[in-house]
Predict the 3D structure of the following.
Amino acid sequence: MNNLRIRSALGWAGSQPGVVNAYSQFISFTQLPFAGRPGFVNDVTYGNPTLRNERAREWEVGADAGFLGGRAGLEATYYNRLVSDLLFFRPLATSTGFSRQFYPSARCRTRDSS
């Protein structure tokens, strides 16, 4: 074995929902031409002013080893990623005048090794 390197990483990231997704129930008309004339229809997405950021936490560990003067090598990695407050559209009753709402509704975990 010529060299051995052990590595690790830890990080957090976020994804902020857009302002339109939070407040679209107030002013959100989409321009839609009808029969060659300009017209407007109400947006189908109802805003959610209580939206939070989508948050992701990830950690990784690994090792690299070199053999035969650098002509052969071996690499191993393991990572674990957790996303909380995953943003999805949830359906709404059509009697509200809207059909969906952006909502932090899930968690997603990804793990892998190579």
